[in-house]
Amino acid sequence: MxxxxxxxxxxxxxxxxxxxxxxRLLFNVIxxxxxxxxxxxxxxxxxxESKKLGKKAIIKLSxxxxxxxxxxxxxxxxPQAKINVIRDYEVVxxxxxxxxxxxxxxAKCVNPACITNNESVRTKFEVVSKQPxxxxxxxCEKITDIDNLVMISHK
Amino acid sequence: xxxxxxxxxxxxSKEEYLRILDLTAEFEKKPSQNLLHGYVVATLFFEPxxxxxxxxxxxxxxxxxxxxxxxxANVTSVTKGETLHDTIKMVQNYCDLIVIRHPLEGSARYASxxxxxxxxxxxxxxxQHPTQTLLDMYSIKKTQNTLxxxxxxxxxxxxxxxxxxxxxxxxxxxxxxxNFISPDELKMPNEYKLYLxxxxxxYYEHKDFTDIISHADIIxxxxxxxxxxxxxxxxxxxxxxxxxxxxxxxxxxxxxxxxHPLPRVNEINEDVDENKKAYYFxxxxxxxxxxxxxxxxxxxxx
Lengths: 155, 302
Known about the structure:
The structure holds two protein chains of two kinds.
Chain A: E1 15-22, H1 26-32, E2 42-50, E3 54-62, H2 68-77, E4 82-87, E5 90-96, E6 102-104, E7 124-130, E8 133-137, E9 143-145
Antiparallel strand pairs in A: 1-3, 1-4, 2-3, 4-5, 6-7, 7-8, 8-9
Chain B: H1 14-29, E1 40-45, H2 50-62, E2 66-70, H3 84-91, E3 97-102, H4 107-114, E4 119-124, H5 130-144, E5 150-155, H6 162-171, E6 176-181, H7 190-199, E7 203-206, E8 218-221, H8 232-238, E9 257-259, H9 280-298
Parallel strand pairs in B: 1-2, 1-3, 3-4, 5-6, 5-8, 6-7, 8-9
């Protein structure tokens, strides 16, 4: 008899799966995507075995489909993550997250004296390093690195 | 360069710097030219900076233009809660060019994106002050007849000194050797040293003035401020180590010049003022010619 493959986190009919998240970054990904605030069905698993990452996490989002802006957010905190788009239980598209060269309106500038932290100005950064992520503010020219990266809350 | 705002020293290419410096020399030869007749320049000083404001206003006056603006944000609608965005949207209707000084970093870049007229940054917090950098470059070129193969010494607060960082970036486009003299707490930040490494430019770090200043072509002095030190005892230990005195200049090159962005407090002893190597007051005069060159270039009049 053929051995049945058991899914640890149950399958979704339509939506998006974020796989290969390093386990320790799961809650960072949840936060940057604002998943605590949406009404859709979400299942996730963490500390799952992974040959590549040691321990990985996975998030399955029912009826959620990402825009580029969401993918950029994921790329900033978990560039290893893999995105699968699901239609009728099948993977119909695989998306690679990639840290873009420029980002807008996603992250906050670390500099309290920056105009973007004092007036309603949309933040803009040039990505000066992708691994680890390091951002140069278009306005004040200061560097925001991964250790003090704060996302602008979603939605 | 026509219509192009000047916000950061990194916005202009080497060729554009050189063009501005050539024009500056023309204005120095002939300081009164009626090129700005019929033009209005707004000087918006959200924080006081008398020296910079007078220099810009002198430049506009010498060119025959008119000035409007304010010297202190307390006399404007900013005190009523008006945003920078709205102030700029209003002022652009009244002028052909905006000169802005603002305590927030990035404010001048933002103003240039909002405004329908070009903007010149006259200092945005600790970030950029590009017209100061250009006048420093003009002072170097004029006194040394070149911008290449010079040995530039930066002395004092190299950690927070905005003018030092901008001048370093600008001079890194030329074959410059840098020497940094500062206390440990105020050393040149790593990012600038890494940048020089990436260009293959040489730099040396020192804790005090020694015989090495005999190699200097330019000595650029800055103020070591007490409030920059986390430990006041450290300040007391080093405060006299970065004061330039006339007797220290004995064995320096005949052509060496001492620059300072001003205002000075005590970091250059007054006995240096009479030395022909002291250049800081002429440097301030060069600022007027440099600003004339920048304004006329941006407005397409030169």
